[in-house]
Amino acid sequence: MRILAAEAPIDILIEYQTNVAQTILSGYFLTTFHVQPNQIKLNNHTKTYMKNSLCQKAVYIARGNGVESIHNASIVVVNKDGEVTHALGNPETLTFTRSALKPFQALPLLTEGVADKIGLSEKELAICCGSHNGSDEHQATARSILSKGGNSEAELLCGAHWPSQMRLANVYPTNGEDKDPTRNNCSGKHSGFLAMAKHFGDAPSDYLEPGSKTQQAVRAAVGEALGVDIDKMPHGVDGCSAPNYAAPIDCLARGFLKVATATEGPFARIAKAMRAHPEMVSGDKRFDLALSRTFPNNVICKVGAEAVEAIAFAEPAIAIVVKINDGGTRALYAACVETMKQLGLLEGVDMSYLKPFERPVVKNHRGTHVGEVRAEFELQEM
Predict the structure, then answer these.
(1) The whole model's pTM is what?
(2) 3-state SS assignment for residue 67
(3) Residues 321-366: pLDDT tens digits?
(4) Domain residues of the chain, as ranges?
(5) Terminal C-alpha separation, the chain
(6) What confidence category does residue 267 fall into, taking pLDDT thresholds of 50, 70 and 90?
(7) Residue 307, exposed/middle/buried by CB under 10 A (0-12, 13-18, 19+)?
(8) Within 10 A of 167 (CB to CB), how many other CB atoms are there?
(9) Residues 186, 242: contact at Cβ < 8 Å?
């Protein structure tokens, strides 16, 4: 069987479904290679995996008494030593990190002394790590960072969109909220980038350029935190126009574990801010806030676009990354809850915050309950 794949020194994600191999491409030049039942051959290198291990059925969309759609997932769990203890599919699945990368993108604010120099509060540091809802409070916090950094709203290059707070409440923007970049869910990160740019001497118009001192510092911090050679990872542009990088999900999990378990230094400050102000990291009706409220002062978590979620606990010291392979966010949170259930993390826990995400209801345009999202899989002990 011959299929197209990307020629690059990276893992290629292959999905086996009833003798059909499908590729999820990462770009670069196209070449051909052969897929045998349990092997992938690329550029004269062979990696062997368990049959059907690369990504597996995990979440079912039920309608009435039937199954309408199925989402595959790759899941990894690492322990306090960074060892993979459980997985679904390939624990080294390579994926773009998207906004799950934000806690690491904020690191130069601390390592370069920028946060202390301009007097960022914990709340402001938290929003630099977040994908917020664009509420009035979020907007005011982003504006405060801009003011402290000596920058202006006009310099933000993140763009604008219908704020999540309004979208989740089914409120349409009537006063230009969807044109306001300070309500963009990434405005905290970008306000932090602008503060870095001022510190490094980058022109405000260049703060997203990969060659800027700002993004060079961010790239180095990300690579070190995740334990990867960042220059060999696929790279691209995020929805907010910032550079973004792919990484194996086990490396992302280990990075989050470092933050969650740190007791001093920049990682500990990031964790402290995110735990103290989870409402700045996401917002009302969001999974990350619900999980943080379920485990106050114990968990850090961050969602990324295209259905990636990273979760890490201080006690027990454990980290989880869930990736829905087709990018279907509707399947993500049910998979996250099921993963934590199987690990015993939800035993005896008040589920009131997480209940809406455990088995989300599917409704039609009249609001009638017509189906549900069900996570049904079994983690493999490694």
Answers:
(1) 0.87
(2) strand
(3) 999 999 999 999 999 999 999 999 999 999 999 999 999 999 999 9
(4) 2-48, 95-363
(5) 30
(6) very high
(7) buried
(8) 16
(9) yes
